[in-house]
Amino acid sequence: MFEKLITVFKIPELRRKIVLTATLLAVYRMGFWVPLPIVDQQALADKMENLATGGGIGQALQIVQLFSASNIGMSTIFGLGIMPYISASIIFQLMGSVYPPLEKLQKEGESGRKKINEYTRYATVVLCLIQSYFWVKTISGWGTIIPDYNNFFGHMVATITMTAGTIFLMWIGEQIDEYGIGNGISLLIMAGILARMPDAAIQLLRPAMENGVALGSDSGIEKLLVLAVLFVVVVGSVVFMTQGQRKIPTQSAKHVRGRRVYGGQRQFLPLRVNQAGVMPIIFASSLLMIPMIGFGQLAKWFDSVIWSDLAAAFSGAGRGFLYNISYVGLIYFFCYFWTAITFNPKDMANNLKDYGSFIPGYRPGKRTAEYLERVMVRITYVGAAFLAVVAVIPTVIASVMGIDFMVASFFGGTGLLIVVSVALDLVQKIDSHLVMRNYSGLLDSDDSRAAS
């Protein structure tokens, strides 16, 4: 493996792409330490700590920060992260299936894609202005803005600064796509998630360093070993399911041209088991923030056991049966919803027919589309079950093992899925450069390469 990594940097073009990508990611991380000038950072940090321990809004902000690559709790110039751009992209992707003009643009190829990207950028600016202004007004109500700047002019300066920060991150992602290793936005999110791992590791290991690792204690060695083994098992399972495919056999028709016969080859149509990716967990987490915040506020306003119990069920490390059932149900719903939007069996059947291919035992056209739809419904059920298990693991670990939820979130959930998916895609992009120059891939063994 070490020799293969050296080989990667021996290729001038690939080395330039990796260095440029690493430099832009470093710039992205440095921006998280440039605070907004009008905010009293110490007062805001104290307020965020109180909110985190009290559940509700604080817990919701922590979850948003985890999968949006943001650090809004520090109110830096990159405080909004890249989430407004992701939100705008999702909005246009959903509208593309229900709004005919956008659907027409999607079918125009490269020119249509550029036009949709332009609209997405405009929508990102609008979302940034709205979100940053409401955030500034929120922290103003908390009394965490320096009094001399707690006015309309100061609020607008902070709003424009945070908006410019997100637009700059969007530009960094596009530069990585064009001149770097590619997949820029996803790399930004992965970098934001991985940057939290050292703090999570310190938080997990601090009790062991302070109190020792005696057997049976809260920081016992058996607890750390179980967590280490569980982390390896979960990561391996996520990699296995992320790469999992259902291969549909296809046969191309034979064509006789002159004295030669073309076609007749047997191929496979790969259908991903996890067709929806990480989007169902993001949607489900976002929707579950509503009862998390709502019940928490109602518990503060009304002295009632009902609201307190509901708030406890949807917030904190002790999320119980009601939260997990709601989470699993929403994940299943959004898995089928997102798959229905992104996977069109009718178009796929027509494409097979146009290319002269067919699925053995099924007539081209309607019968093929119905078969593909049945197969996708079945494998989506398996993919949704996998996502549900991965999503619930952090809450189960936090409850059973008694560790902080933000530490447990690295054992599953959105963050782990994003990191694994982006890492696999990054390895595939590097492998494409290596294979193109007759080198073995990063994950290929030398024996398999020699045999091929």
List the topology elements.
Blueprint: H1 2-10, H2 12-30, H3 41-54, H4 57-68, H5 83-95, H6 100-106, H7 110-141, H8 152-179, H9 184-194, H10 197-211, H11 221-243, E1 245-252, E2 255-257, E3 260-262, E4 266-272, H12 279-301, H13 305-314, H14 321-342, H15 345-354, E5 357-358, H16 366-401, H17 405-408, H18 413-436, H19 446-451
Antiparallel strand pairs: 1-4, 1-5, 2-3
Describe this structure in words.
- The protein has helices at 2-10, 12-30, 41-54, 57-68, 83-95, 100-106, 110-141, 152-179, 184-194, 197-211, 221-243, 279-301, 305-314, 321-342, 345-354, 366-401, 405-408, 413-436, 446-451, and strands spanning 245-252, 255-257, 260-262, 266-272, 357-358.
- A 3-stranded antiparallel beta sheet has the order 4-1-5. A two-stranded antiparallel ribbon has the order 2-3.
- The protein has 19 helices and 5 strands.
- A hairpin with a 2-residue loop joins strand 2 (255-257) and strand 3 (260-262).
- The two termini are 19 Å apart.
- The protein has 2 domains: 12-180, Preprotein translocase SecY subunit (Orthogonal Bundle), CATH 1.10.3370.10; 205-451, Orthogonal Bundle (Preprotein translocase SecY subunit), CATH 1.10.3370.
- The model is unreliable at 447-452 (pLDDT under 50).
- With 452 residues, the chain is mainly alpha-helical.
- Pfam families: SecY (PF00344).
